Every structure is written in structure tokens, then in C-alpha cells.
Amino acid sequence: MSSNDSHGFGTRAIHAGQTPDPSTGAICTPIYQTSTFVQKSPGVIVEEYDYSRAANPTRKAFEDNIASLEGGKHGLAFSSGVAATGVVLHLLSAGDHVLLCDDVYGGTNRLFHRVFAQMGIEITLVDMTDLGAFKGAFKDNTKLVWAETPTNPTLKIIDIEAVAEVSKEKGAILAVDNTFCSPYLQNPLSLGADIVCHSTTKYIGGHSDAIGGVLVTNDDGLFERMKFVQLSEGAVPGIQECFLFLRSTKTLHVRMERHCENAMRVAEHLDAHPKVEKVVYPGLESHPQHAIAKRQMCGFGGMVTIYLKGGLDESRAMLEKVKIFALAESLGGVESLIEHPAIMTHASVPADQRAKLGITDNLIRLSVGIEDADDLIADLDRAIG
Ligand SMILES: *Cc1c(COP(=O)(O)O)cnc(C)c1O
Prior knowledge:
Helix content is 37%, strand content 15%. The protein is α/β, with parallel strands linked by helices. The chain folds into 2 domains: 9-249, 3-Layer(aba) Sandwich (Aspartate Aminotransferase, domain 2), CATH 3.40.640.10; 253-384, Alpha-Beta Complex (Aspartate Aminotransferase, domain 1). The chain has a 7-stranded mixed β-sheet, with helices on both faces. Strands 8-9-12-11-10 form a 5-stranded mixed β-sheet, with helices on one face. Helix 6 (160-170) links the parallel strand 4 and strand 5 (173-177). Helix 1 (9-15) packs antiparallel against helix 2 (57-69) and helix 3 (81-89) packs across helix 4 (106-116). It is globular. The termini are far apart. Bound molecules: pyridoxal-5'-phosphate (PLP).
């Protein structure tokens, strides 16, 4: 029982990073719920284990598993997605400049603008679907590009290969937040990114029961620097969480297939609905970057954004009437969620910026789960009325 890089995604999802427990043969990697490890002689330790903030076997199995799924050499796990993001920012020094895609995750926006800007990091928001604007936004001190694709909640698709090429030319590190895709649908490292970030809270965990984050890279130097920050800052995940994530990745490919299938059905159905003004889904041919999505993703994901005909009243009425879709923030779990970005997830984005991004009162974001598509569609129809 083991896996190697030549195996397919499903085989790696189930086996990468894991071997039967050598002492008992347990098929599942045990939860090594321990803070410290006994040494044979001062400094003589078993493998790399001396203290669980530095390394722990359950965490290591998860880190190796996720690295394999992203086609990367090194994985690092953290206590949340934003903790992972912060570690990438620690690669910078005061006076460095960062390019950030314009409708980035709200928590990422807050971390950049309200924590790291105060430590002397300079930030420019830019629409990375506009390559001309992207190129023009670089400065002499641009050291990092942070992209997220599809974006949230307007599901714009950024061409990772094109952005990677420009970043490399300008000597900046490219980090891609791959949370919306999961490693099953998109592998940014293979498209030229230097670092991939995930909130494992979403599709990787997939069951809405744990908070976590990961970073994956092929670059030995970046890995050593980020591992040093992981050790020094200590935002490591709990061991129970590592076990849950390790269990969840075993079904990631199967869950993602159903998320994509259901989301496509919901998107097509709502696209033809008389009370829906517009549906945004990368799988629809009407999506402005459908061709890029087709090229760089191997499925279009579980997130669907709709614009209802009407305004806040119509949105509120729908959100109060759904029965299977749960009105809640977050995404990527097996259960379907629905939310109103202007009031909920994106309330912290200033009103003028929200307007510029198209986050209006009639915009509703769906995280389509893996229930029966017919039931989901009936639920939405009933709620839209
Ligand atoms: C949720 C999310 C994050 C932050 O992750 P947490 O686990 O909540 O800290 C970052 N990026 C994206 C795209 C997310 O959806």
C-alpha cells in the first residue's frame, strides 16, 4: 500500500502520504495526539519528531497527501486559510509591493490592508482578467502577486499561465488561492505558480466541520522559509483536524464530480428561469472567460452566482424561503449553502468597491452541495416563486 506521482488523482487521494501504521498495521494514520516525543539520547530523535509544533506524524501525512494532490513537492498545514495566507506575506519585508486581485476573498483583503499594510507592505488591487492593467500595475518593488480564481463572488477566471509568465518576467513570486477549485479541478503549480494556498475549511475538508489551511510549493527555498515561519509563528492545525482533513481528501475526487454535475444543472436551470436576470458560472458558454476556464480547470466547480430580477426585497424573500439550501456563510461542504454577499460575506468591502465589482443587492451566491440535483432545483424554484 503506497502511491507515487504517476498514479491517478483518486489513488493519490486515498494513499499518498500514508502507509499502514508500522506498529499495529492500522490502515488509517493514527491521531498522534501528543505534544512531545521521547528522545533516545539528547538530540537523537525518531525521524523528524521532537515537538508537535515543529512536526507531527498525522500532520505530516496530511501535508504529504495534499502536496501530492497539487502536484507539488512540499506541503505545509496551518490552523486556517488566513493563517496560511499570512505565512506567504511573511516572505516580504517593509517597503515591498504586492499585487492583489480585485475581488479577492474578504478575509484576505482584510489581512493585506489592515494588518500587513501597517507593517509597511504596499498593496495595489488590480483586475487580473485585464492583462494590460495587470502588467501596468507592477512597480520596481513588486515582490508578490496574489491571485484567486475563480474569484469570489463574481466568479471571474484569471488566466494563471499568463499571469505566471508576467510575474516571472518581473521577478515576483506568484501565489494562487486555489480554494474554490480544490486540487481536483485545477493545479496552479503546473501552470507556473510558485505557491498554492487553500482554505481546507472548504472543499478539501468538505464536511463543514473543521477550519484549516495549506500551502504547497515545488521550490525548496520557499518551502524552507515558509516552514521556518510555520515553526516560529506556530499557527499549526490541531491533530484531530489533520486527521479529519486526511479522511476527507480520500473522497475529494468523488465529491468534486458531484459538485460540478449539480452546479451545472442548477446553473442551466436558473439561466432559463424568468425571474433570474443573469447566471454566472464558468461552465456556461455565456461566461466571459469560459474558454480560459475550459483550458485551465478540468471541471467548473460547485459555486454558482445569480442576479435575481429585482433588488433587496426579492433577494431577502428567496433567502428566507429556501429549505434545503442553508442560509450561511462558507462554502465547499457536502450540504448546499446560499448567501447574500452584500450583507453577509462581503459586508466589510466598502460600498463603492462593492458596486465596482458588481456585488449588488440582487446578487446571490450558491455553494451547490452533493444532494440530489432535482431536490435542489425544486427548492430554488419554490423559493424564487
Ligand atoms: C474561506 C476562504 C479563505 C480563508 O480561509 P479560513 O479557513 O476561513 O481562514 C481564503 N480564501 C478563500 C477563497 C476562502 O474561501
